[in-house]
Amino acid sequence: MIESVFKSIMDDKEPIVLYRRCLSDVKFQIAQNDELENEVNENSHSSAKILELTVDNDVVHGIYEGGLKTWECSLDLVEYLSIKSKEINFNGKKILELGCGSALPGIYLLSTQHSICVDFQDYNEHVLKLVTIPNILINTVLRPQSGNISELDILEETNCLDQLKNSRFFKGDWNGLTDILNLYSNQEKYDVILSSETIYNLDSIPKLYNVIKNALKYPNGVAYIAAKTIYFGVGGGILSFCQLIEQDNIFEVNVVYTKTAHVRREILKLSFL
Ligand SMILES: C[S@@+](CC[C@H](N)C(=O)[O-])C[C@H]1O[C@@H](n2cnc3c(N)ncnc32)[C@H](O)[C@@H]1O
Fold this sequence. Notes:
Belongs to the methyltransferase superfamily. METTL18 family. Its main location: cytoplasm. This is protein-histidine N-methyltransferase. GO terms for molecular function: protein-L-histidine N-tele-methyltransferase activity. The chain has 273 residues and is an alpha/beta fold. The chain has one domain: Rossmann fold (3-Layer(aba) Sandwich). It has helices spanning 23-37, 42-56, 72-84, 104-112, 125-139, 154-159, 177-181, 205-215, 238-248; strands spanning 2-8, 16-21, 94-98, 117-122, 169-171, 192-196, 222-228, 251-259, 265-272. The strands form 2 sheets. The protein has a 7-stranded mixed beta sheet, sandwiched between helices. It has a two-stranded antiparallel ribbon with strand order 1-2. A hairpin with a 7-residue loop joins strand 1 and strand 2. The N and C termini lie far apart (46 Å). The site of S-adenosylmethionine has 21 residues, from helix 3.
């Protein structure tokens, strides 16, 4: 099943609606795949483990980093992009969403802008295959007609994969991602980097920052990082991330969006000094 998760109504324009695959369906598919494989190879072992972990845990460091569900800041980032798309011209831009998970911010741009190239990265391959790619398809080529939400046909989805040619998908740790991205010249780098709820872990913040620093086009590239001010129990958050940026003295940081909630949420805009 798919569900509608974001609706933005701007002026007299058509409302913008985003869809995502239901988490229960993703878990069902993981379980079904394991049953079909019927052998303990490396993949089936890790998928069973992910299934087990996601019942009670949001994140298990180094194994599952939370990409199966949609986190709050991801919707903040979609809202911000939808408001700003009037004044920021994303058309023709090269975009990277880091730690994408359900990837709604990148998908929002992919489905509303022209001649755009959006690449997606997630720690877990399962997340890319079972959540990110299906979500891209149901918001583009398989988009429900007139809000009619129905079952997602995996076979039909597989036939549509060649329609994803404007996107690349990267799995694994941020450590070493810069090499894998193959960005030899400034021209090949990204105009915009998006990332939501990815600065919760103090150990990972420098790795994420290095990818941003190396993959962003100089001098006009911009990164939008949506996050909570503090992640209780894990230690990361806006403050630790900003301290690192300040020490490095390469980027200017501006808070461009704030949401007051039980834990305050912000979007940081990073641009080269
Ligand atoms: C809490 S989830 C957020 C998912 C999505 N951006 C959202 O807001 O709904 C954190 C994401 O960060 C990524 N991540 C965390 N640590 C990582 C690491 N060390 N290397 C690569 N990716 C990592 C994972 O891909 C994971 O999906």
